[in-house]
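Lab notebook, bench 4. The sequencing result for the construct came back, and we need a structural model before the next group meeting so we can plan mutations. Quick request posted to the team channel:

Model the 3D structure of this chain.
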Amino acid sequence: MRLFYQPNIDAGDTFLDTDESGHCVKALRLKQGDLIHVADGKGSIYTCRLTRPDPGKSFFEIVERKQEPAKTYFIHIAIAPTKNLDRLEWFVEKSVELGIDKISPILCRTSERKTLRTDRLQRKAISAMKQSLKSRTPEISEPIPFSDLLAHHAESEKYIAYLDDLPSPHLINLAKKDGQYLVLIGPEGDFSSEEVANATRLGFQTVSLGNHRLRTETAGIAACHILNLINEASL
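Done. Here's the predicted structure in token form:
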């Protein structure tokens, strides 16, 4: 399957932008009449026929639309941006492949990175969506202070992955199937004790993601994978 991206196809934008068209015409050498598949990032994949291929802007007509069934669960990972941006981008790519609905970069007391280009992360997410033949891209919010995220969230199952002297229950033993999940992943220096106390006071449960210390981006991927496994194990 050749998968391209057009987020406004349902509004009548039946064309590929310059980047997508260049890949379609120059790299893949597709011609008029060839079939392509176009994802809208919202859960639909369209089978389309090229009507006017052009490296700058290729037009197509819709042949068929397939809507992915609505998910019964929602995965939101709030993660502190890593000092090395490549590691955060790796997290975005892999979490999209696994299945994630929202990513919120959070600014914590010990965060080493305070600024972030979310447009670059969104491009990484779109690329990962196409590579893994998915139809949805996650919402990626602008960086938000940790305290603001605690005060403004909608998820009912709330967890904070925190390294402590006292063992915490594993996420896989706490999370329920078909949940609306929010998991907080801290920076390289971990959450401060005050941040953990504020989170637990607001109903977040401290959880373990395994027996070993994980890097920030690895912890985010582990949480995402565990929540997907809980919901897909019986499929």
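The radius of gyration is 20 Å.
Will bring this to the meeting.
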